[in-house]
Amino acid sequence: MNDATTASLPVTGLAGLKAHWRGDLLSGFLVFLIALPLCLGISMASGFPPSAGIITAIIGGMVVSRGNGSFITINGPAAGLIVVVYDAVQSLGEGDAMLGYRYALAAIVVASVIQILMGVFKAGRLSSFFPASVVHGMLAAIGIIIMAKQIHVMLGVTPEKGSLISTIAQIPESFANLNLEIAVIGFSGLVILIIWSLLQDKTLKMIPAPLVVVLVGMFLGHYFELEHQHIYLLQPDGSYLHSHADSAEVGPKFLVAISDNFTSSFYFPNFGKFFTLEFWEAVVAIALVGSLESLLSVMAVDKLDPYKRHSNLNKDLTAVGVGNLIAGSIGGLPMIAEIVRSSANVNNGAKTQWANFFHGMFLLIFVVFFPHLIHSIPLAALASLLVFTGFRLASPREFANVMGIGKEQLFIFVATIISVIATDLLVGVGIGILVKLTIHLLHGAKLNNLFKIHFTQTVQANGSILIHIQGAAIFSNFLALKEALAEIEHGKTLIFEKNEVTLIDHTVMEFFHEFKREYELQGGRCKFQGLDRHEAYSSHPLAARWIKS
Predict the structure, then answer these.
(1) Between helices 277-304 and 132-155, what is the axis angle to 10°?
(2) ∠ CA(32), CA(34), CA(40), 5° rounding?
(3) Is the pTM of this model over 0.85?
(4) The domain 447-546 is classified under which CATH number: 3.30.750.24, 3.30.70.2190, 3.40.50.720, 3.30.565.10?
């Protein structure tokens, strides 16, 4: 980064507050409008009380923002952790929701200690070990699971308890027996989100779609008198249409249940299952998935930052771990650096982490002084937000994007999705990684090359640096090369010799593409030699390549 760019970077700390408080305050307020309904929806979908997500976002904003290693990320609960946390509540509680919640809080506390240690011992680099196709497959599976569970809430129907496959199989029945008034609220939210995603008008796009969904949902909830328990009749003249009943019941149970006293929302963890296998399965899942998602989100937001600042991943992971330790100790969900709210923060013109602080501050003010407004939000409106979020994670476009990179990427992507749905998140991700390693072995990678890359680094007479790579360069072994490249000073000419590379996968191709872009922005040059001998898996410029033996 040149001196001119460095000089124009926004200052941070108290100086940043003084210099940029107006823009960061406005962005924090706009992000708060998005965060409030999402925090509530994610909490309830996770089997936690509604206030748990707000507790987490307040801590993520007002505490974590003061010590994390990123600049414009927003910390809070995320849809990607719904499946992990819900499974923890169910497995640990064994049918007792409140007990499962408190056991899950204990798992969050222990997982947060692991996250802090990961940050301290610089484990942020381990995010590179997970191949893109497996990560995308994991997120798509999470999206499918979220949709499968929240469609029933959106329709106002409670499915029979059972496996995930059973929950999916009951969707047609829920449509056939929907609660019409609740479904109207849910589908109204879904229509608004679809329309907002297609809007081109920049002025309208500035209004957060989740806010519109919640306001319309509150209006319809008031119109249908959901605050009062009653039965509405389905008239034979067609004024109400319903499939299998002449009446339906509505009432406060279809609204968010939250205490008027925010401090009564605090709950403390129960470590009674500390020595059980299911407790440690929950701990590992929360620590691994939460850390991976947070690190990937921070790296994605760095690419959106107009100032091209680079976050300190290890410092950020430590700060998120501290935030989770506090949140888990008083009843909150685990947090990550959340991509959707962070993207909105960038688009709103935020300059520093004070925007994250202000978003947490506004949430605290709202939940303390206006809890009655939160109570008037219909659950179906929040469910529509989550169904839409789930669809975006598992949309046909995601499948098409992966297919465009190569058929083998699509196979790994689909294998991960099926494995996660059929087993659980950790096992599914493990199977996805094994599938990818097996494909690499079939395409010529040697067993002793799977986790160790072979390369040399030589300074030429003209000052350029020749990096000669041999054998396979794949997701599971290129960490050593990545660290070596990070040590090279800026402004050099780097020549990557790949004549003897037998296999280079998509994850490494993507890394080289990004490394070249960033290194040349900092005044250096990168040349790649020998790729013309390789056969690509597809026409995509970053597709995996190999040399046929």
Answers:
(1) 110
(2) 90
(3) yes
(4) 3.30.750.24
Q: How far apart are CA 515 and CA 482, in angstroms?
A: 9
Condensed to tens digits (0 to 9), the pLDDT of residues 81-105 reads: 999 999 999 999 998 999 999 999 9
> 120-138: buried (b, 16+ CB within 10 Å) or exposed (e) per residue?
eeebbebbbbbbbbbbbbb
| Residues linked to residue 493 through DSSP beta bridges, in sequence order | 525
Question: Apex CA 74: angle with CA 192 and CA 215, to 5°?
Answer: 25
> By the 8 A CB rule, do 475 and 508 touch?
yes
The encoded tokens of residue 100 equal 């499962």
How far lies 331's CA from each of 52, 56, 114, 182, in Å?
Answer: 6, 8, 19, 29
Radius of gyration of the chain (CA): 25
Segment 155-209, tens digit of pLDDT: 999 999 888 899 999 999 999 999 999 999 999 999 999 999 998 888 888 889 9
| Residue for token pair 């509540």 | 89
What residues contact 392, with CB distance under 8 A and at least 6 apart?
143
What's the CA dihedral at 425, 430, 435, 441 to 10 degrees?
Answer: 170
Give the span between the Cα atoms of 549 and 546, in whole angstroms: 9
